[in-house]
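Students often ask why we bother predicting the structure of a whole assembly rather than each chain alone. The short answer is interfaces. A chain on its own may look different once its partners are present, and contacts between molecules only exist in the joint model. In this exercise we take two input lines together and write out one structure for the complete complex. Read the inputs first and try to guess which parts will touch.
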Amino acid sequence: MKQNWKPGTLIYPLPAILVSCGSSDEEYNVFTASWAGTICTNPPMCYVSIRPERYSHAIIKRNMEFTLNLTTEALARATDWCGVRSGRDCDKFKEMNLTPEKGVKVSSPYIVEAPLSIECRVKEIVSLGSHDMFVVDVVNVVADDRYINAETGEFDMKRAGMLVYCHGEYFGLGNRIGHFGWSVKKNK
Amino acid sequence: MKQNWKPGTLIYPLPAILVSCGSSDEEYNVFTASWAGTICTNPPMCYVSIRPERYSHAIIKRNMEFTLNLTTEALARATDWCGVRSGRDCDKFKEMNLTPEKGVKVSSPYIVEAPLSIECRVKEIVSLGSHDMFVVDVVNVVADDRYINAETGEFDMKRAGMLVYCHGEYFGLGNRIGHFGWSVKKNK
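Now the answer. The structure tokens for the assembled complex follow.
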């Protein structure tokens, strides 16, 4: 049986991303966001939606750059903590033993402990209500070579232990079901 | 060691969503998208990015409505197949044994086999390059009561067996790590 619910935000599973920002040690901050995703393949563009009252909102608006750091099971506690605490009250990098490293193409730092960091430059800020959508160009990707398959050059997300956020709960990746296109190959 | 890669679309894990559209039996179609997510909590808004050459692009532009159907491990084969095949060549609902049911607040059908369907009305279409971003208002949610916890009223995504799409591969949900905010509660 089906129930009708009032409109809500129920698209899942999602990543839980550590967004790092700021252009100097004193300004550096990091927070967690799941309202984030890819909006265009070519050119590579993505978005993050951020509440205006969040401490990092003003930092990003000032610098118009930030970095999306993908997270893993090993980073689960830091990921959750950075989503609950505010950079107004503490140095989240220090408290969570995260290491900020100077960005390559942007002023914002990336997180050394993250398997993959996506450097972003803001193109547009769209006010929607509770959240502002930051529409960005991807300008660089920093990848940890521990998870790159030496033969194929592919980044192995299963081995990296990617973290999944699903309707208020964190999970690891489960059983591998198949590769994109497997349903057609099996029929041949 | 870190490697720098050229800009790319690497935000993962993501949902693999069955997008259903069309306002009559003859027009009904369904395709798979992962460039989709929540962009605002209040009002509830989301987006899907679609290549203009995709068969459903014109159908959605005509009706300005569609439905996002979340997918599960049980729907993995249909999800992959609907992402590879085109509605120009076949009736994907029939081929994959998916049941279209008349929408509640929109003309597009929802998929009965999906655990959760999100009815959307298009507010704006933004051309970005390879993809057009459809910015939408959520107008209704249809939930399968098999996965609703009778005590809490919560939708149990773990029990529904949500499907995860991660860099070209499909996975199930793995180990539950914790609830949003657990890192702070543990410290008390």
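Check your guess against this: Chain A touches chain B through 90 residues (CB under 8 Å).
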